[in-house]
Amino acid sequence: MSSLPSLPSTAPVSLATSMDGHCVPGLIEGQEFESVQRSGFFGKLLSVDRESVTSMARSMRSNATYRSAGYSISASSYKDSTGKDRDVGVAPPQQASWVAIAFIMISEVVGAGVLTLSQKYAELGYVPASLLILANFFLLYYTAWQMVEVKKIFVAAVSTSDAMDYTFGRVLRTTCHVILLINLTFVLGDYLLLIGKSLGSTIYNIHLCSPIWTLIGSAIAGSLLCSLRYLHSTTALCVVSVLTISGSVGIVIVALVVNGRAADVESPIFAEGLDFMQFMQSQSAIYFTFSGQFMFFELMSEMKDFTEFTKTFRIAGPFQVSIYLLVGCVGYYYKGTEASGYFLDNLGFGPAYRVASALLCFHIIVGFVIVGNVLCRILHIQFSPFRANDLSWRGRLEWAAVGFGVTATSFVIANAIPFFDLLTGLIGGLLLPPLCLLAPVLLYIKTRHMVEKPLAIWEWVINLSLVAFGVMLMVISTMENVRELISNWSTFGAPFSCHCQGMWDTCECSKKRIEYSGGFNCSSIAP
Fold first, then answer.
1. Which conformational region is residue 213 in: left (phi greater than 0), alpha (psi within -120 to 50 degrees), or beta?
2. Of 74, 53, 83, 272, nearest to 174 (Cα)?
3. Pick from 370, 264, 327: which is nearest to 39 by CA?
4. How far apart are CA 433 and CA 291, in angstroms?
5. What is the DSSP letter of 75?
6. Which letter does DSSP use for residue 23 in this model?
7. Residue 165 pLDDT level (bands cut at 50, 70, 90)
8. What is the distance between the alpha carbons of residues 260 and 350, in angstroms, rounded to a whole number?
9. Contact at 8 Å (CB) between 335 and 118?
10. pLDDT in the model for residue 58
11. What are the percentages of helix, strand and coil residues in the chain, rounded to 5?
12. Residue 76 has pLDDT above 90, yes or no
């Protein structure tokens, strides 16, 4: 199949042949062709040649069985200061097997969210928390299957926003795009908060306030983001990411087992006093750990055969569910209702805590660079599309400016909401349901309508129930997270306050950790 002509990303052109006069397979007289740039996985700059959205919508309205075959996707070439193409070692898309994508998914989804799970067990109890983990996995699988079915019809959809454009139009496409940008920015804020906390925990004898450690972490992670415009060894990054988070969590689990379970620890099967509001708030944090759907279209664009995408859960699913159950159950068993919302808080001060914090810091810095690269690429394409692949001084300066702006905004978020478990829950309850639950379900319903294959009654019941659950999760969990956030501001300090809790080796800031460490009893100190 000959490649489609490279056109600037401007207005669509009506054609049935390529610009050099050769036939373009899949295009017929009256179709419109467009070339667009997209940010792919790991921030890869992609060039997508396809039938335009308006042209395909017009064709499907006249013939519901119509499918466009005029589609190609490639990694954009970068140009140096002389205008010549430069090979920067970025792997081409549509080459990965489902096995490779499974390991990429493991590296991306098993991250910061796992650190809150022992606390969610403390809030819910063994049975509700474990059932929620299983239920959220099956929800992840179901929505992934729906997204594959949508892409079978709209093969040129490289992102959720693209799919929204094909099905619902430009307004919802823009809405979805804006929510994605906000979500990625808040995730980066969550990462910076963790980087600052883990840096301060690694060197806990140096008493700097949380905003200072976060600023230092921002300088490190932000400088890497601004300098790494494209990522070469994505496989190596995935391996390092998995090893470091596994090592950090593993150290905590081993330490908990070695230290044993205190006689007064209580770990009820069902949490006492559990109500519906608390249930939904805890669900938002658990949902955060299973919400990777916003990147699934990008992942499918990396595959040789995207219809095999659901096979990735044969590997990713058992690993993800097992590690979540292990971390949640072990932390809850040994710490009971006092289990912390930051898994490393279950350790006392000492070498193990330093090493676990250092590994976590490295893992989160890698995650910040990967997610930040994606967000910066989207913004760069948005504001300066003709220099998105320009390696001249101006192109580099624009990239650095975008990276600085993203890092600065994330720094503000990290210090405005300086409580890791609440920031994670807020993202999982407010920003992820529209992208990872409502969008896949609505896309599937609309696509079935467009191809004139109406849903059966039982399908309507399932999908509308999921929509109702997604809306309810957004409203209730956000209300509870905001209420607790306001309470924590009053108790521990307002945004940009010191927030030394759990970092400094003093009774004032880390009473529980001092006692975990086998030191003196802080309660014995006279007030």
1. alpha
2. 53
3. 370
4. 8
5. E
6. B
7. very high
8. 17
9. yes
10. 83
11. 65, 5, 30
12. no
**In whole numbers, what is the pLDDT of the chain averaged over residues?**
86
Measure Cα distances from 330 to 76, 123, 288 in Å.
46, 15, 20
Compute the distance between CA of residue 120 and CA of residue 274 in angstroms, rounded to an integer. Answer: 12
Query: Is 438 within 8 Å of 467 (Cβ atoms)?
Result: yes
State how far the Cα of 250 lies from the Cα of 359, in Å rounded to an integer: 11
What percent of the chain has a predicted confidence (pLDDT) above 90? 58
Query: Pick the residue with more confidence: 341 or 140?
Result: 140
> What residues are paired with 35 via a beta bridge?
49
Backbone dihedral angles phi then psi of residue 88, each to the nearest 5 degrees: -105, 10
Q: How many CB atoms lie within 10 A of CB 437?
A: 24
Q: Is the dihedral of CA 274, 277, 279, 281 positive or negative?
A: negative
Tens of pLDDT, residues 486-505: 999 999 999 999 999 888 88
Q: Are 306 and 300 in contact (CB under 8 A)?
A: yes
Tokens coding 80: 């140096």
CA–CA gap between residue 126 and residue 328 (Å, rounded):
9
**Residue 205 in contact with residue 510, Cβ under 8 Å?**
no
User: Among all chains, which residue has been given the structure tokens 């019809």?
Assistant: 153
457 CB burial (10 A radius; 0-12, 13-18, 19+): exposed
